[in-house]
């Protein structure tokens, strides 16, 4: 089985629901409230722009039919001020319109009516991809003491010598980078990287961590990027 990075997506802190139908808006707020601390609402194009300008949410759920303008116009305006994921929610199912909206900057398109489980899965999927992209961009290139790591290009050079990381080692490195400052236990890393229910996870993680450190640490005997927290796990700290 190929290594995978996540088994499920993280929950968003804030979602903006742009919907003028009061009943549907209430249902969406209730549903999204099960995974999100703050669900804000807007019923018009102008309200939505103002909400995003004041404080960008983690995700926007956008209905196309608004009283003061078409949601497609709002999509273009939002893309001018924010790059957060935008999911379009609409009863329109024409292929050409879906393509046009995706080309305009929508990240996903959901046709109404939509079940709660599918909606939450789509939201988590977008949040997961957004979090991955932001974290990888934050640590896209790491340079410290003769070691250069490019996560996007998947390239590591240690003391002038290119290092070849296995797919599992790349997945392990990304799992750590995407949780900067947080100690991940061997069990958590096993779930994130190997995605298996059974196995000798402690041995697998320890052996692969040793191999990874030999390739990415300036001095593997004194780790500086990937720190061992005794009794807890491993923590990525990055260069100081």
TrEMBL record:
GO terms for biological process: regulation of DNA-templated transcription. Residues 139-238 form the OmpR/PhoB-type domain. Residues 14-127 form the Response regulatory domain. SUPFAM superfamilies: CheY-like. GO terms for molecular function: phosphorelay response regulator activity; transcription cis-regulatory region binding. This is Response regulator transcription factor. SMART domains: REC, Trans_reg_C. The modification 4-aspartylphosphate is found at residue 63. Keywords: DNA-binding, Phosphoprotein. InterPro entries: CheY-like_superfamily, OmpR/PhoB-type_DNA-bd, Sig_transdc_resp-reg_receiver, WalR-like, WH-like_DNA-bd_sf. GO terms for cellular component: cytosol; protein-DNA complex. Residues 139-238 bind DNA.
